[in-house]
Amino acid sequence: MKKSIRLFAVAATRTCHFYLHLYKRKLTLLILVFAFIGCSGPEAGVSFKLAQERREAISELGYRLFFNLPEDPKAPIQASQTIGFRLERPRLIILDFKEDPAAVALVQVNGRQAKYRIKNEHIVIPRRYFKKDTNTITIDFRAGEQSLNRNEEFLYTLLVPDRARTLFPCFDQPNLKASYTLTLELPVHWEAVSNTPPEQEVLSGAWAQTAYLTTAEEAPTGAGRKRITFCPTEPLSTYLFSFVAGKFQRMTETRNGRSISLYHRETDPQKIAQTGIIFDQVYASLEWMEEYTGIPYPFAKYDFIILPGFQYGGMEHTGATLYNDRRMFLGEHPTTGEQLSRMSLISHETAHMWFGDYVTMAWFDDVWTKEVFANYFAAQMIRPQFPEINHRLNDLRAFYATAYEVDRTAGTNAIKQSLDNLNKAGLIYGNIIYDKAPIVMNMLAEKLGQEAFHKGLRDYLHTYAYGNATWEDLISIL
Length: 478
Ligand SMILES: [Zn+2]
What we know:
Blueprint: H1 2-40, H2 48-57, E1 58-68, E2 78-87, E3 93-96, E4 104-109, E5 112-113, E6 117-119, E7 122-125, E8 133-142, E9 154-156, H3 164-167, E10 179-187, E11 191-194, E12 198-203, H4 215-218, E13 225-230, E14 243-246, E15 249-255, E16 258-264, H5 269-272, H6 275-293, E17 303-307, E18 314-315, E19 320-324, H7 325-328, H8 336-352, E20 359-361, H9 367-385, H10 391-407, H11 431-448, H12 450-463, E21 467-469, H13 471-477
Parallel strand pairs: 1-10, 16-17, 17-19, 20-21
Antiparallel strand pairs: 1-2, 2-8, 3-7, 4-5, 4-8, 6-7, 9-14, 10-13, 11-14, 12-13, 15-16, 18-19
Helix pairs in contact: 6-8, 6-9, 8-9, 9-11, 10-11, 11-12
The protein binds zinc ion.
Zinc ion (ZN) is lined by residues 348, 352, 371, 374.
């Protein structure tokens, strides 16, 4: 009995040791797994999964942004922001910020300082700081410069497709539209343009008259400075938020009660003389789109900036559309092709105000749905401006040749391409989107009949106004 009891005791002890050993190993494994998950954090860029989770959890989003722009293009840009949003329930919040972690100085959530982690181009803020309903995150930071295009006398933002996150912490995805209220501090002799008109302008020395919330905004600045606060924007995707600041000439035209300002840095009188025809084409394209869609221009204003050396032909920021100077200011004896190309570019960017800006793709895999309409309508808008041209022939030349150039190769791609992370969105653009897609759209319009196609597009714009839509959403209406 004793023996057996002893044997049992030994066996039990061994079993205990065995389980304890197993338990320790499992615990170590578990700790390692959690440590790995904790360290790895969200993947770099903006994954489709992260975007989907945020889209479901976050609503009523607004950004209040402040940038202090020094005249010296090498001096750092101090900035601050307050992001307001609503949550159905408290959760961990992941912001996108592709910048040196040292650029973030302070993070506060709902008025109290928060501990955060910076991992793989994200600011990760624990769930415990957030509550159901409305929340605010206030961040003091140094603005990222990758997409700021700073020059000696001017700078401009270009945040498409996923570069808003290089400038300021944000939820950088097209389907989290937000209202932006921007304040810029800048030299008093600089112009500043953003998506909306200025609401308030204050000269240095008079800061106390305005109520600013964050510490960066309270920092005293030298003389010869001013602060401009712009009106809150309509709901916009991050890639459409924009500002331009620096030394520019401003020209304003008013026609039928609508004022449009053009900003440029051109000095050649022969080129400046072309601003009349540029205004004609901007107004003509706006009126064409309003007539076709039945929707008056849906944003606060339609100013545009002609930039020396701008990297694209144009970029459709609402109220602050950017153009390349060489595409807008032509030589002394421009060819018909150059003139057509300018009108086509203006029409393309104007069409985007409705197709792209007013109704936006939910994810960049559908970027072609905005580019196809921009080119499809541009081809129609140039017709009345150039009645002497054989436009059928011109379309063949403009679209078919360039589309076949890619489509005949083994490396061609489908019009709609899958995209698992926004950091690859730049690879989607190309001849297939810009040139093959309008051919396909034309086929679709002919198949449906122009009248049904036209009515379908109007329904589509009304249904998804200031929101997002997918290709499937469009097709189900058409
Ligand atoms: Zn475009």
